[in-house]
Amino acid sequence: EIVSYGEHLAQAADRIVSAGQGTARDLRLYTLxxxxxxxxxxxxxxxxxxxxxxxxxxxxxxxxxAAAEDPAGFAAALRDAGAQLRRVAExxxxxxxxxxxxxxxxxxxxxxxxxPVAAPARQAAPEPPPPPRAAPPAAAVAESEAxxxxxxxxDGESVFAAAEKAxxxxxxxxxxxxxxxxxxxxRLGLERAYDRYRELVHAPxxxxxxxxxxxxxxxxxxxxxxxxxxxxxAAEVQAEIxxxxxxxxxxGDVEPLVRELLDLVPLALAG
Length: 271
Description:
single chain, mainly alpha, 53% helix
């Protein structure tokens, strides 16, 4: 985390220099002030309080206007701090990195008499709970407290004995139907379908007559559009063709409608 924070400081320095003059640079400086405020926390590692002191000095430089007056020098201090934080990953002693960070903080205006950030006080370990008390042995129980098992017996008549004496209620049987009466009167529809299937399979070719046609057979020509109805349908198809042609859809979607429109023309003329 410390190394990544060093990378962040180096990138922030480049953004401050590239922002130039004006509002953009000031916004980057004040955004960086919030970042420094987030690391101002105590810790046992010497780098952590040194980083907090650096953040204090940087916030003072931003708030007092020193960073805006000399953005190049402020950015150089940030780059040096980032380089020192990256040294932690190289195995450098944390105390050496903390001393370099304090030097950079004084470059930014931190007074020499600022005390280091105090490490958090360690909390005392909680006292262990008292050991559980052992239960008294069974022999310690007085014999006078024991209850004879005979004293727990029920004095009255048992409920089971009363139930045995009660007469059994007569069992009523419903009318018994013979199993043959539950059979269907004829073969079921599925059975008749299988009978017909076997008849068609085993019958010689041409021996099975076609089923008679229903008397209410409708001529297919009566279901087609004709006359006025064909013209109305043609107008609907023409409007749909115009709508789809104006959209961004593929022209292939219009082909079925064009074929229907061409079929409706002779139907309208014939009617």
